[in-house]
Amino acid sequence: MAQEQSALELEYAIPPRQRFNPLKWARREPFGAFGFALIIFIVFMSAAAPVLRTAPPNEFAVGPPLAGPNTENWFGTTARGKDVWSRVLFAGRISLKIGVATVLLGTLGGTLIALLSAYAGGAVDFAVGRIADMFIAIPGLLLALVLHSSISADLPDLPGLQREELYLVVAISLFFMPGTYRIMRGIVLELRESTYVEAAQVVGSSSFRIMWRHIAPNMFGLMIVITSISLPAAILAEASLSFLGLGVPIGGLDAVPSWGADLSGSSRRFFSVAPWLAVFPGLALAITVFGFNIFGDSLRDSLDPRLRGRI
Amino acid sequence: MRDNENYWQRLRRRPVTRRSFLVGSGVAAAGSAAILAGCGDDDDDDTAAPAATQAAAATQAAAATEAADDDQAAAATEAAAATEAAAQADPDADKRGGTLNLWKTEEDAGLDPGVFHLNNTEVIYSTMTQPYTYQPTKNLIAMDGMVGFEQVDPTTFVWSIRPGMKFHNGDAVDSEAVAFSFGRLEKLYRALDGTHTTRTGYAFVDSFEATDELTVAEHWARPNADAPIYRARHYYSFLNPRVVEEHGKFEGSYEHADGTVEDVYSVQELPHGSGSGPYTLTKRDATGTRVERWPDYHKHTPADDGFVEDGPYIDAWETRVIPDAVAAKAAFLAGDLDVFTTVDPLEVPEFEGQDHVNIVEIPGGGRAMQGMDGGKFHDKRSRQALQKAFDYEGFIAAIRPLGGMYAAPISDLLPAYQKLSQQDLQEWYRFDPAEAQALWQAADFEVPVDNIKIFQSTGAPLQHEISDYMAQSLARALGPIGITAEVEAVDGNSWAARAVDRSTDVKDWEILSYGTGDRGSTTGIPNDSYLIDYDPRAYGFNAFNHYLESPRKEIAEDSATIIDMLNAQEAETDPEARAALLTEVQTWILDRHWCNWRLPVSSVAYFGFSSRLQDQGVADWVNLYDRRRESMWLKKDA
């Protein structure tokens, strides 16, 4: 009897949880580790911008106009004598801030809507699905332009997020949210039919408890993957909108440099005579996006067994 | 996955992995791009085709020569002689032909010369006739539709129309048509409740009268020193009354002094037959406009400066809509445009290196205005505080690194009227943060101002830099007393709508920033350059809340004063006496810190012309009058 019981325990024993070993993961996913290192580098440079800067990023005439990279101005100066190095450093802050805020809102919002609507099913799920279809059908840039002219002036200043920044977050999130909803809805529909959810229903668990304790935790891995993949796209979207003049505040002592804005505006007309105006903000943007992309790619491989190493 | 398996082992084990697929695809794409780039487009080869054509022509010519008999040779000799004779008859034959390629940032909003005057001048000046052109830099009038005039008394002006002119549909241009064209300006203004902010161009005229077939008499309500120059403005175009009657759009009614009411029509589409200029409009859409030579254009004798007896040399003008100045610059440098009017001084070396580009230095000047909301800044001290909080020298160093100068209310491009020196101006434009703070704190604000919003349109990139500098300077100077400054930039249409929104007593901005001051232009009229920005009947009224009926007492009183001063200078026809009056007006504006203030402007500006464009009237091109210049021509071999 004791022997039968120990055999049974052996059969149903839950395997011990494997501890995450970063070094082991890095060896297995060198690209991902490299991407993570790039992210850390960018975050560090942005965070340390007030220390690493050589001049206030918005200060005019800190050097001669259109000076090339030199010992005083490491990345050169703009046509109005602003220091490109300092601007590149500070611009990372807005890119990361908008990127993270956007992805958090877009991913969490999309996941929450998917959880509620897919679990509820029926008319609710159908209606939400069609609304998502509607948003997906509208080109993202057009949506951002419409939002800019319709709601941007009415948004409030939030702590740590100015009105213009909030507009960017809302505009870009609305672009990402329907996609996240679509992916997450499929997962919820699958999980809703699983045996442990049925079991929970049988023992009388409330819908909220089932969603919160049994379904949501199983969506977490995919949510991280979506976040890591959406982040570079969000950063690029911020750069694109800033490029079009719809981005962060452009003037004043509190104005925030943005890679996208610095790649547009009056700088563009000097790119051929002062290529550093395009190269350094462009490089910073490319490195950030590249880092997040390959990190997210590896994360997806690690967390989704179906995708490991396959096309 | 086994624990001892690493990434590289996994790559080796699987024949086709996702990454190897992506890498392979990337390499293939890059390779394809390189191959395509290397191949290029043979169609653009501008030497191969002519060479082939020349070879074929040479072969044909040789064959023809061999086959020709004596008669054919004689015929050829006669033909050559005829060609030579024709060339002698028209010594300007080599100047004729070609298409002038221009650009503009936006589509026009209508072509009626009496209504809108934005983005349509290339059509109006090429397809219509005005009495004459005026070149401010030379102070030169060149007769066009007018051939002679007489100032009968201070308020009566009689002039003659060029005989033999026809509208494009064959109707004769006579004095009835001209009197109709000019008389409708005031009627349109009334019917549309304002069509021209510069109504001062015709507001002093009582009536235009056709006295005989080719004579027009003008009766003025009061003398006007600028009246002759106004006649060169685009709204004084000759318009065909029959076309307006047949194709016009009803705009409203105009009530005459005797109580009779007249319907008023516009021709925003400018139907065929509207004008009598050297070109006719053949294309107008979102991509641009095209005008082509009108074969029945009248003989222009004698041909004053800028005109040609037998009509313009250039066959057609193609104007492309290119919203982005950087794209236009690229097109110009690629040889696709003949004129590029917004060259930044820092860009000049880039342009100078191009063979097909001719960079011309023109006088600076221009408009870099900061309009203050009179609803909030009604106390003179508040406006003075703003102007004391601005670092002018720093602005010149940052924004005008290759040369800047202080700017008076009237443009330096009108030296006959602008008599204030740079030293004079510096007395008013002095950066003094401590005094700015004291003035601000002493000033009376009916509507409290804690934050100064500088409002601009997203149109010109340099505008961003100017507003940014302004915000930083004001925030630094007034920050210690708790005043902040910010910039708001919106698209041009929203900007214009909010600029002139008069739904409340105050604007939703504090400073309206407009004009980059990096290139000068003037029509030769002080009102246009730039008294209009201070005039309580013009921009002062609709944009800056500085107007006669203002609920703020100081603004209303000052409005009355400046209107009197503006009227007095406008009526003074003696240039020296007028200059003195204009100096008084400018001094008053600067002393009162009235309505607007001009930031330092570029002391030099540059235009880019293609090297094939000749006799373009460089200095006055910027004023648009020279777009009427028929003597421009295009070099064939450039």
Outline the fold blueprint.
The complex is a heterodimer of chains A (about 300) and B (about 650).
Chain A lengths: L1 H11 L9 H7 L1 H18 L1 H4 L31 H37 L1 H16 L2 H11 L12 H30 L2 H8 L4 H37 L15 H4 L13 H28 L8
Chain B lengths: L6 H7 L4 H22 L8 H20 L2 H20 L9 E6 L16 H7 L4 E4 L4 E4 L2 E8 L2 E6 L13 H17 L13 E8 L2 E6 L6 H4 L10 H7 L1 E7 L5 E6 L12 E7 L2 E6 L22 E6 L3 H9 L5 E5 L4 H5 L4 E7 L5 E4 L7 H9 L3 H8 L4 E2 L16 H7 L4 H10 L8 E7 L3 H18 L5 E7 L1 H8 L11 E4 L24 H4 L10 H19 L3 H18 L3 E3 L2 E2 L1 E7 L2 E2 L3 H4 L11 E2 L4
Parallel strand pairs in B: 1-12, 17-18, 17-19
Antiparallel strand pairs in B: 2-3, 4-5, 5-7, 6-7, 8-9, 10-11, 11-12, 13-22, 14-22, 15-19, 15-20, 16-21, 23-24
Helix pairs in contact in B: 11-14, 18-19
Describe the structure.
The complex is a heterodimer of chains A (311) and B (638). Chain A is an all-alpha fold. Chain A has one domain: MetI-like fold, CATH 1.10.3720.10. Chain A contains twelve helices and no strands. Chain A has helices spanning 2-12, 22-28, 30-47, 49-52, 84-120, 122-137, 140-150, 163-192, 195-202, 207-243, 259-262, 276-303. In chain A, α5 (84-120) packs antiparallel against α6 (122-137) and α6 (122-137) crosses α8. Chain A is globular, with a radius of gyration of 24 Å. Chain B is α+β, with helices and mostly antiparallel strands. Chain B folds into two domains: 102-361 and 606-634, 3-Layer(aba) Sandwich (D-Maltodextrin-Binding Protein, domain 2); 369-602, Dipeptide-binding Protein, Domain 3 (Dipeptide-binding Protein, domain 3, Roll), CATH 3.10.105. In chain B, the strands form eight sheets. In chain B, strands 18-17-19-15-20 form a five-stranded mixed beta sheet, sandwiched between helices. Chain B has a four-stranded mixed beta sheet with strand order 1-12-11-10, covered by helices on one side. Chain B has a four-stranded antiparallel beta sheet with strand order 4-5-7-6, with helices on one face. In chain B, a hairpin with a 2-residue loop joins β4 (146-153) and β5. In chain B, α11 runs antiparallel to α14. Chain B is globular and about 90 Å long. At the A-B interface, loops of A face α1, α2, α9, α12 and α15 of B.
